[in-house]
Design a protein that fits this description.
Helices cover 35% and strands 34% of the residues. It has 2 domains: 6-125, Electron Transport, Fmn-binding Protein, Chain A (Pnp Oxidase, Chain A); 126-164, no CATH class. The chain has 164 residues and is an alpha+beta fold. It is globular, with a radius of gyration of 17 Å. A 7-stranded antiparallel sheet has the order 2-1-5-6-7-4-3. Strand 5 (64-71) and strand 6 (76-87) form a beta hairpin.
Length: 164
């Protein structure tokens, strides 16, 4: 069995969003959100490089990467550590883009597919579990909290809408 467990798969599939940490050529940290994180196989995860020239440049100079994925309502997830490889125009690129396009319906302009060999993974667990005894309770609490936060943000957007 590989590094990636069924629970890790479920968290990644539910979240679809991660934060990828790379290192710039001058040694500075770079953190960037990625909305296409998926499991490739038992030892690899991937995301599409849609608008990430900094991440891409960092990985070309240093392939080390950490990816954090958290399922919002459960307030838990994983840190994945490994080495990334950029794929352009090859079978990995074609399979990954076909999968994301098939799931999301949109065809993003993809510069590369970032395939990460996961060397190790660690759990991320909210300290909120000090106050609740089950994941179900945590999820119920955050469904309610999320609804209040969404309502608050909707009021903001109504007053000051974002226009890309």
């Amino acid at each position: 069995m590989g590094v990636i467990t069924p629970d890790m798969r479920a968290v990644i599939q539910s979240a679809h969003l991660c934060f990828a940490a790379t290192v710039t050529p001058d040694g500075r940290p770079n953190l960037s959100p990625k909305g296409t994180i998926r499991v490739w196989d038992d030892d690899h995860i991937f995301f599409l490089d849609i608008a990430s020239p900094g991440t891409r440049a960092n990985l070309q100079s240093n392939p080390l990467i950490e990816v954090n994925v958290v399922e919002q309502l459960s307030r838990r997830g994983y840190r994945f550590f490994g080495r990334a490889k950029l794929h352009r125009g090859d079978d990995v690129y074609r399979q990954a883009t076909k999968r994301i396009y098939g799931e999301e319906g949109d065809k993003y302009p993809v510069e590369a597919v970032v395939l990460i060999e996961v060397e190790r993974a660690e759990s991320l667990i909210s300290p909120g579990y000090l106050h609740v005894s089950t994941e179900e309770e945590m999820r119920a609490n955050w469904r309610e909290r999320r609804a209040a936060l969404d309502k608050e943000f909707e009021a903001h957007v109504a007053k000051d809408p974002f226009r890309p």
